[in-house]
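Subject: complex prediction, re-run

Hi both,

The earlier run crashed halfway through, so I resubmitted it with identical inputs.
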Amino acid sequence: MTSLPTHLEPKRLGLVIDLDICVGCHACAVNCKQWNSGGVAAPLTDLEPYGPDPLGVWFNRVHTFEVGEGETGRTVHFPRSCLHCAEPDCVTVCPTGASYKRVEDGIVLVDEDLCIGCKLCSWACPYGAREYDYDAGVMKKCTLCIDRIYNDTLEEASRVPACVSTCPASARHFGDLGDPGSAISTLVRERGGYDLMPELGYAPTNKYLPPRPRRTAARDVRASTELTPAVAAGGGGFLAWVDRLLSG
Amino acid sequence: MHPALSVIVFTTVSGAGYGLLAWVGVWAVAGWLPADRGLAAASLALSLGAITAGLLSSTLHLGHPERSWRAFSQWRSSWLSREGVSSIATYAPALLFAVGWLGIGSTGGIWALFGAISAVGAVATVVCTAFIYQSLKPIQRWSNGWVLPNYLVLSAMTGVLWLIAIMSLFGMTDGFLALAAFLCIALAAVLKIQYWRFIDRTASRSDAGSATGLGALGRVRLFEAPHTSENYLMKEMGFRIARKHAAKLRMIALVAAFFLPLLLTLAGLLMPTALVAPFTFAAALIAILGVLIERWLFFAEAKHTVTLYYGAERA
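This time it finished cleanly. Structure:
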């Protein structure tokens, strides 16, 4: 049913991506591709993978932007994937019931057996989270690694999305954004986490943490012109007695 | 947005078919529709043929056309599903109307009622088509109040031009229908020009700054794309058309969809009965060509917010 559930459980699983830390290594995108090529949405078809013009399905893409000018300018690496919105129009426009939002954790998924490949959901997503698999004729998207996060056969530490587990800089965090006390909700509060394109009203679950304010002037760290005496003159104790003895 | 030929043909051709169906339905209710079986056969064949051809054409762009029956299930939330339900449901009153008009040779009484229901179904289907586009918030050039009136009036305009053409084939003329055609052409031209003024003058809601949330730090521009070759998103949503080409095509669309059909219909009115048909058919055909160009532009000029992640500064 592509009507949004009228009642959602409070649990809202999602990602928090720290744009201050991301180094743009694309490891999250590559590990996502690797895991999901064998996961529930498999295969993530690549057409002409070794040709001059490869065309493939990826759930995670890392864009790099330049922001600002001159000495305040900076490079920001920007991983982009499904935000598992609270108001996902990609779900409501689906004519077949293939797209749905899970009641229990808010994850947005596609049932590939119902999908007719009309591509309307990809038009309805402002963020470009859905990609059409030209070979399978159906739409594919990030599953928040639903086959990892609830997978009892994995070690508990591995029950996080592939992108999170592989990030070498710990720029990606996974958790329950519906719980104000969770570690990632605290992170969002403390670092001023924000929504992408809030003006469109999709209420994304995933949040982005802004780059920290940039230092434009170096702090004065020159060496002092005078050496501070190791022991203040006129003090008491054994060292002061030695000082007095040697000075006298 | 990528102008997919199957969708452009569908919306134009079936739009004309529904327009034609609506006009014969309304004319039957008004008691002005001649109970002529030849006219019935030609009008219903063209109308239902265009609708059916358009619907079949729209399934060509599906990844799994064999599952398209599933698209009738989500009418509670999806305009595409509503369009499917409405389009199929309209066949029922239209075929009953055909029984009366074509089979029995009557357009009054209960048969006029079926004509009225067909007209309601035709209008409802075009409304659903328009709302598929108008409800897409990531595409501001579609998500505005000009889209629905444009779709409705263009459908009515092409429909009435075809009805006039078919009637002239049987030596019939109808002054009210000609008047309706002039009104539709004038209104459609005004609405299309207003739509173009709107999309040219309205600032976009979203820009690269809001798409990345980095706007407060300064101007945001793409430094490095995530991939070296095109992906689905760029093929489907990244279509761009040069402003000068768009301006030329707009002029061609205005001339073909509105100006020439108006002149040809007027000229047809002044001709002796035997010479009317070539003019009215030319008007209807050129109008379809004009609306095809207009529909192509409707897609080609639409900008999707995903392009903000691929170097566009506004969308």
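Chain A touches chain B through 74 residues (CB under 8 Å).

- K.
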